[in-house]
Amino acid sequence: MAVPGQSACGVAGNTYNVTTFTSVNTTRLRLSIASRTGYSTGVVEWMALRTGS
After folding, report:
1. 33, 43 contact by CB (below 8 A)
2. Under 8 Å CB-to-CB from 17, ≥6 apart: which residues?
3. How far is residue 40 CA from its own chain's centroid?
4. pTM passes above 0.90
5. Rounded distance, CA 50 to CA 32, Å?
């Protein structure tokens, strides 16, 4: 399920990509990655930060 209010889905190479979204309440997170044919994908670091109250 896509997150409502998603700001962007970063795809820049060799840099940290940041995605922000409106607040959600959850007990689980899932990362789904789809790559284009001929390209590789990977995750070096994944952080979920709590902001606000």
Report:
1. yes
2. 9, 10, 11
3. 17
4. no
5. 20
| Token pair of 15 as six digits | 């840099």
In whole angstroms, what is the distance from residue 53 CA to residue 51 CA? Answer: 7
Residue 11 has which token pair?
């795809």
Alpha carbons 26 and 38: distance in angstroms, whole number: 34
Residue with the two structure tokens 């997170």: 29
pLDDT in tens, 9-51: 777 778 888 888 888 888 888 888 888 898 888 788 888 877 7
